[in-house]
Amino acid sequence: xxxxxxxxxxxxxxxxxxxxxxxxxxxxxxxxxxxxxxxxxxxxxxxxxxxxxxxxxxxxxxxxxxxxxxxxxxxxxxxxxxxxxxxxxxxxxxxxxxxxxxxxxxxxxxxxxxxxxxxxxxxxxxxxxxxxxxxxxxxxxxxxxxxxxxxxxxxxxxxxxxxxxxxxxxxxxxxxxxxxxxxxxxxxxxxxxxxxxxxxxxxxxxxxxxxxxxxxxxxxxxxxxxxxxxxxxxxxxxxxxxxxxxxxxxxxx
Length: 253
Known about the structure:
Blueprint: H1 3-17, E1 20-21, H2 22-29, H3 33-45, E2 49-52, E3 55-58, H4 68-71, H5 76-87, E4 95-98, H6 102-110, E5 117-121, H7 124-130, E6 136-140, E7 144-146, E8 151-153, H8 155-162, E9 166-171, E10 175-177, E11 181-184, H9 187-199, E12 200-206, E13 218-221, E14 228-231, H10 237-244, E15 249-252
Parallel strand pairs: 4-5, 4-9, 5-6, 9-12, 12-14, 14-15
Antiparallel strand pairs: 1-3, 2-3, 7-8, 10-11, 11-13
Helix pairs in contact: 2-3, 5-6, 6-7, 8-9
Domain HTH deoR-type: 3-58
InterPro entries: Carb_Metab_HTH_regulators, DeoR-like_C, DeoR_HTH, NagB/RpiA_transferase-like, WH-like_DNA-bd_sf, WH_DNA-bd_sf
Pfam families: DeoRC, HTH_DeoR
């Protein structure tokens, strides 16, 4: 097995399982741990992997995106804390957009229930979860439903959004970078998010620390366009400060 074949194998394993460990890869591939570390370093430079202590995880790209079902199993405690912190920033907003994804779904569950609220979303799971709430009016964007994320996209969704002025939008991304902004693998998803950015008076990004520094295929926003960025304490304080210098309030919870 040559180096490129070995790296393809590592990438396939990472995408199948969500992450890989250096020790396990070395044993499985019959190479040294140093060889695996060099492979991971090369793959990180190519934008395919992000290294962690003792391993790595795959970066979502035009050819690879995790499903909603998988996302519900990863960093659940951190995402829950982020959702609670996000819900505390609703303020006097009467119309709120909730993006697709598991963290936004948790934000929807944490929204205040003591007053009327209209929630617009592209997520079938979020709309379903809010439908029974007495004081919340759930408005689901129309469009093609993406099987992996159970979210609507394409011109039906963007056409609906063009008719709205939204008080507050909670927006997610597959990656956020100071250099490349907020990105997502699918152009159709990117266009929905970009239209939300145009329609919303206030915008808040919510995502776990693994999103930071990751870059995907389609850029839809810049970090400085957000009022706040909410993440967990896995994001180093120094890096949080660098994002804060761009303008947003950065909350680590």
